[in-house]
Amino acid sequence: MSLKKLTLVAALLAAFVAFPIATPSTALAADTAAVQPKAGWYGKLADFDLMRANVDIPLKKGVVIVDSRPAARQYDPGHIPGAINIPDTQFDKLAAKLPADKNTLLLFYCGGLECMLSHNSAFKAEKLGYTNILVYAAGMPDWMAKGGHAAVSAAHLKKLIDEKAGYVLVDARPKRVADKGMIPTAINIPDTEFDKHVDQLPADKATPLIYYCGGLECVLSDKSADKARQLGYRNVMTYPEGHPQWDQLYGAGSMAAAPAATTTTAAAAPAAALVAGKEKGSVTVASFEQVWRANPASVLLVDVRDAKEFAAGTIAGAVNLPINDLEKKVATLPTDKPVVFLCGTGARSGEAYDMVKLLRADVQAWFLDATAKFAGDGTYTLAQK
Question: Is 167 helix (H, G, I), strand (E, B) or coil?
Answer without folding.
Answer: coil
